[in-house]
# Entry
Amino acid sequence: MKPNKIDELYFSDVNEPIRLGRREFIKKLGGGIIVVFCLGKLSILDGLGQNNESDALNFNAYIHVKENGRINCYTGKIEMGQGIITSLAQVVAEELEVSVYSIDMIMGDTELCPYDAGTWGSLTTRFADPVIRAAAAEAREILLDLAAEKLNISKSELAINNGVIFVKNNTPATVSFAELTEGKRIVRELKNKPEIKKSEKFNLIGKPLISIDAISKVTGKANYSGDIKLPGMVYASVIRPTVFDSKKIAVNASKLSEFGGVELIENKDLVAVIHSDPEVANKAARKVNVTWKAPEAKANDVTIFKYLEENIAENSVFEEAGNIEIGKKASTTILEADYYDGYKAHAPMETHSATCYFEDDKLIIWASTQTPFGLREQLSKELDMPLEKVHVKQIFLGGGFGGKIYNQQAIEAAIIAKACGKPVQLVWSRKEEFMYDKFRPAALMKVKSGIDSTGKLQLWNFDIYCAGTRGTKLFYEVPNTKTRFFNERNIHPVGTGAWRAPGNNSTTFARESHIDVTAFSAGIDALEFRLNNLNNQDMLATLKLAATTFGWNRKKAEGFGYGIALGEDAGTCVAIIAEVFVDKKTGIVKPIKIVCAQDMGQVVNPHGATVQTEGGITMGLGYALYEEVEFNGGNVKSRNFKNYEITKFSNTPEIECVFIDKMDSKPQGGGEPAIICVGGAIANAIFDACGARVNQMPITPDRILKELQKG
Amino acid sequence: MKQAISFKLNNETVTVQVNGDEQLLTVIRTYLHKTGTKFGCGQGDCGSCTVIINNEVIRSCMLLIEDVAGKEIITIEGLSNGEILHPIQQAFVKHDALQCGFCTPGMIMNAYGLLLKNPTPTRIEVIEGMEENLCRCGSYNRIIDAIQTAGKEMNSKI
# Structure
């Protein structure tokens, strides 16, 4: 899939099924029972498949009950810390009635796993999970059929416990999965509606389960792309310009002769040196002098918002109801404000890394990528090789957050490996990671709201610059609304792309700040105002749960403040209430407590969902309070954690997560939603604490003091 | 000129032929194939590369190999006793104090150094001792809980 297409999908509401290519996996497997799930129009799973129903070999997932009784579950999704290696194993174990520890998750390997467009958009639990459950349920039925035959007893009299099938009336006859599968090779394509378990029969789904990959991670055994070591491997160090998007003019590598065994690789604008010792490669790279032509700097981190507003005219109406002029007339108070959000880096702890080698004419690669199949396609094009000559292998990612869907480092590594004919490892420096990040785009939101004398919203006029429309469908009840999206591709001086719940962080900050501004102007409590203007029952229930859990009416001391934000992302309703303390002298904000209530449908692993929510909130405090990319044109000045501050131990508050109980509904997104409400809730809490209404994130002490000085 | 430098790594004496100005992190990861210690920033800002040298917490990306001659280094690979996890590792598993796991070895080694100095840290002392280790996934609160649990567990065995 082209990066543009990925952006389009990522920044929109992610409900659209995604296409795939043909694979022939089954031949590669040994004996046992293989259930392939081909998406048809199954009522229970309508719209849940991420691939095309037309091709029988196109499937979303498959389950392999092996002859030793263990179970392989294959999925094109990858594990980057979001915990699906655990929650997907959990649903397979649930349907097959086995221990979760007898499941081996085979993930993101382009030769073994079914095609997948990418691990992003909080899609896994919503899309892959029901499909995998269905395949596991089908495998269970086949095993029961085989057991009935073997034990010569009716299937209805059989039950399964921990991988062993037994007769319900206590007869001693039992048969294990291993015995049933031995010497057999049964391939079943799942086309009919599978009998998946009802929630009252769940043993595992809905129960908290600790990450099954934790032991490998606490012992240092978990492998990431930069941990692979191949015989004869060389380490690459790329020579970079100081300004993003610069073009190469000339290369002077005369000083390389000082280093034995160093090789210079040049391919278009890519200039790299390789050596069997990374220390030598890095030192040698510093001696290569490249002359670059940098693009003209058109904006910096201060002027960018004005620049975007003045240079983007192109817009489209995303949502419209009633009439804005009627809304104005119906309003007794109209409030206008602009909200700003600067560029944000993904800053995963693992920088972009890749290790690869050629075996004859075939490329084998491990890469920190959220899109292994997308990478295969990119490599095939870039190196002019057939798709089947590229094999992307399974590996852990040290964080992704949307930043590892573009694969620049993997393409660079492969180009270098092809040029030098040796296995290559490329691990980006932290500086490269900042420079070539696809930042969350800077965004401007212009809002106009109107309320009548009873405090009901009559008008909502929302112009969004660059943030996208994801999650902006208005869930407040307003008769006259208009939401427009202003955007122009390539307007940004730096690379931009998808950042955990793309755009929704910026737009939710703007909307929820402005809802509070509107409520405050009418002298109405922020909770009461929201309750009065909501008709969405799911959102209402979520807000009420958050308010009760937090204790909205509890007393607060001088300097402390509470703030609410609501939002919608990936099918999940989120309500966050934050408590902060603001030191009015210094403007320093201390987050005290955050309560997050979510309606995320069925919660497969409440523990995993809690960890994801806590993580989203902790990361979100960074964009709300600290994270700011400094730049002048394409010269990115934030190049390390000293000048790009993320949330640390000391500023992590107490976090409490609560979920609406909906065991029988479809699961919704969990990796992204919570983070969207952090900015708005913190902004509103800061205002409540000290009276400073800061319209720009990050809400820094300087910005707070500036507002306080205005009085 | 290459020189031989010897030190103890996880209780075994090792000797490497080096110039002397190589980063300890490169020596551990690349020359000695112990990849549990991670590269995060190369500037001592993130703590992913933390190891213990003579009982002190050290960022291995900031130290040259010539400075560790004769010293005792412990990395994440040296913490468990065969299959039996160290109490800090056990506590990280129990509290699920990790997500992507990339900062985890550094967190655990930093916690090990902290507990050597202060076996029963308060929550605030844990925060102060861990402050310069970064986790982008946001597992800080769980890491704090894990370290306090591990401290208690380790003291109960003395």
